[in-house]
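Operator note (shift B, R.M.): manual run for Related to WD40-repeat protein (Notchless protein) requested after the automated queue skipped it. Running by hand, logging everything below so the morning shift can see what happened. Input copied straight from the record, untouched. If output looks odd, do not overwrite the archive copy; leave it for review.
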Amino acid sequence: MRSSLDEQFKILVTSPLRSRKQRVVVVVDAVDECKSVSERRKLLQVLSMAVQEIRTFKIFITSRPDPIIEAALQPLSIKAELKDRLHDVNHHDNIDDIAAYVHQSLNGLISQDKRERIIEKANGLFIWASTACRMLRDETTLDLPEIIYDRLISVDKSGEIDDVYRLIFERIDARSRTTMCSMLALLLVAFEPLTVDDLEDLLKHAGIGGSVKALVQNLGSVLSEDQTTKLIHFRHPTLVEYLRRCSVAKDVKIPNQIYINVGDAHGQAASWCLKCFKSPTEGLRFNMCQIETSFYLNKDISDLDLRIPASISRKLRYASSHWLFHLAETDDGWRSTLNNEIQRAIQSPYVLYWMEILSLTGGVPRAISGLQAVTSHLRMDERIRSHMTEIRRFLIAFSVPIQDSVPHIYLSALPFTPRSSILHKEVLIGYKNTLSVSQGVEPTYPEFPRSIRGHKSTVDAIAFSPDGSKFISGSGDRTIQFWDAYTGQPLGEPLRGHDSAITVIVVSPDGSRIISGSYDGTISVWDAFTGHPLGTFRGHKGSVRAVAFSSGGSRIVSCSRRNTVKIWDAFTFQLLGEPFQGSKRRVWAVAFSPDGSQIFSGLDDKTIGSWDALTGRSLGDPLRGHDDLVYVIAFSPDGSRIISGSNDKAIRIWDAVTHQPLGEPLRGHNGWVNALAFSPDGSRIVSGSSDRTIRLWDFHNAKPLGKPLHGHEYSVQAVVFSPDGSQIVSGSSDGTIRLWDVLTGQPLGEPLQGHEWSIRSVAISPDGLRIVSGSKGGPIRLWDTATGRLLGDSLHGHTERVNAVAFSPDGSIIASGSHDKMIILWDAVTGCPLGEPLRGHDGAVRAIYFSRNGSRIVSGSDDKTIRLWDSATGNPLGETLRGHEHSIRAIAFSPDDSLIVSGSEGHTLQLWDVHTGQLLGQPLRGHQGWIMAVGFSPDGLQIVSGSVDNTVRLWDRATGQPLGEPLRGHEGAVMGVAFSPDGSCIASGSCDKTIRIWDSVTRQLLRQPLRGHDGWIRAISFSPDGSRIVSGSGDNTVRLWSTKPGEYISTTL
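Run finished. Output pasted below as returned.
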């Protein structure tokens, strides 16, 4: 039988030491590795008893922070010291020890600068350093040490450290593991460290019965509490990466793997933030910091730094800054649950109190981004979405006074809100003592401008944020400006810091940092949310021409005109290794490969240099083919191809592996190629040139797409695609920025004038190439869908407003119906009328429709009748159809031409047999207002209708019964409805100035409402391929929209 631990220790250790007079020190390493709690406790008891018995016996114990060990040792009077040293980066000897270990372990395997990077990445955690060294020394792997090193340095790479963390969490009692995961999830989703008290409060609010102190004690090896600030920190970034991987999906192959429910944690955090707003003692209130006068800006109040923490609790500051992002990152269920709390937060006066905190804490830019992030969700309550959209416009329009002075939220911003805005109509009335503005208040917020102006010199650099909500420009005026991508308005004041012109702007992959390069030879780093400077890279002796991030964001490569290419640590701002050698010529461009392994540079000797990003060694001979200096280069998203632009006016495509040119150069520009970019999906290339044009190219067949884009008055210096690929933003030497639609090549912005009156009807030709529109003013216009330009002269013939237009199925004929009681048929090519007008109605013709075979036209009128016409002769067919008791507003043929559906001002729909002219069944009842639009599904089994009652309804064609509940969301009359050609979705246009796209099966919105019109949307139609929607509005414009989520206005006609 095996002896007990204390007996073994007594026989083997204690007894022999009794006769020894010299001091003996025994080192017991990694006591925490004893998995059994009882064994750890027993071992410590035996050791402590031995020390007490023998005065010359000393024990040195090492362990990760462990509550069992601490509990056993804490009460012992004999202990000399109990300290957490190995996990505390404040003890520099820890880092020194790790440095010595790493240098000894990896000497001769990787270079010294890489060893230094490993030491820094370890961040004082020996377990990470030892794991990294073991991976690099592993002789069984086929990977080169350089590849393993790059994997260790980059983020979101799973390595052996996962096994270490898995062991740590396995030690937690299985009964407590679910609670632990919920607590870790909250720490993971927090946008800044939480205090012990705040996390306790959050847990209590969320109904999670865990102890924060117990969590930190039990996970002391991976969590720490700052004793001064009481903030809880993850000890190492690799733990954050591990927990994020655990939030994706639980791997059933790995036993006891934890699962982190990030969506639920964000919902709990959002709910807690909204609770903080409502606190009667620490919540939102008027004049949060008791500012006595409006005569001083925030920065001029001497004790404001003391007032803010005294008046605004830390958790309220957290809630104000982050509640929107928690709301955006959670799921639809949580957003629906929190509807009432959200509505309270965005209503007056609380929304203004929240803005006070934003003003005091510099939180306006983050709030603008947060509002956009929330409103982008499809199933948001529409009232909330509308109100948040307006709050966002308010913050953008008045960002300067709001950020500069709390009182001027009420005194300068609120009184000048547009008259049509909710804040003006519903909030301003509650502040009688503020300014009363009699003149100068705009009716609406400004529309997207055709060209964006603000810089005082050339715009040489442009970059989009990863979420597409804003773009950033750098100028010859030495400033950097943030712009809202949805309104074109500047976000705050320009960033200043460079002593010369800005040459390049780059955003980090995670969107948190912005890098700018300048003629002054420096590279600056800025916080992407606050605009605050974070640091400066110094080392170039000439102007910085180009900068690029590695894919993980950990490294930066830069080049200057003084013949150098350098790599920097993106976080420490330190140079990594020596500048790349190999060229004695000026370097104009530089780019990282997507995998971070290669760097290519454009040179003024007409070549492209290539380098190993890890070693700095040249990768063979330069790429030759250009006839002048190479000004710009870019990698395809998959890293397989490189494009380069040169002063020889050509663009070349290269194989990134073989370094051979692919095909002939792309030619078309008449000037230097200054800028190039790939679309996110790699299918298109955009180029900007000194010839003042922008060109789009099909990457796969190396052909131009459409005509050059004209608009800039001088050289185009910068171009970039939006993250969703739907737009291009360009900067020019003319000092302006322009946005362009990728599909049509048209600039986004103020409408191009065509109609002078409200648009009443629109239709797209069967080939999708033309749009016809009719207006209140009478003329009919034809448009080119690709260019947005008018085709020929207007079609004149009607004497009053045109209420309806339609193309024949073969596209050769256009039919129009008017208030003048006539229908006119037009040659769609020549625009000439075909014969005499069709007469017969005694009232305005409100609706017309071609049969599927094109042989007949049906019309509905204010005279309450329906007529059928022969489209070839213009003669009436059969008897007039009578049955409605009110004006007929809408009409359509079924796909098989056997039925007609009509909708009237009598709130009903009627079905008719085309062959007999007889009514089929009873009227379809359900709407509470006039029927303004009707249509059949492509299979003919369903009918869709839109009504003045603000709803869309679906009907069963066979039974005439409504299918489910109406589709609700519009805040005004639904004037137009249409099924997509494949029947998968329904589009509706409304007097609320929005278009909504619905899933025809689930009845749910497929994307956020399309906004852009300033007047009622009276007509909508799908393109034949379903990729676009055309709309006509009371704002006198026709607009084309993409049906793809994330793509917005295509063009305004």
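Quick read of the result: The two ends are 94 Å apart (CA to CA). The first strand starts at residue 24 and ends at 28.
Leaving this for review. - R.M.
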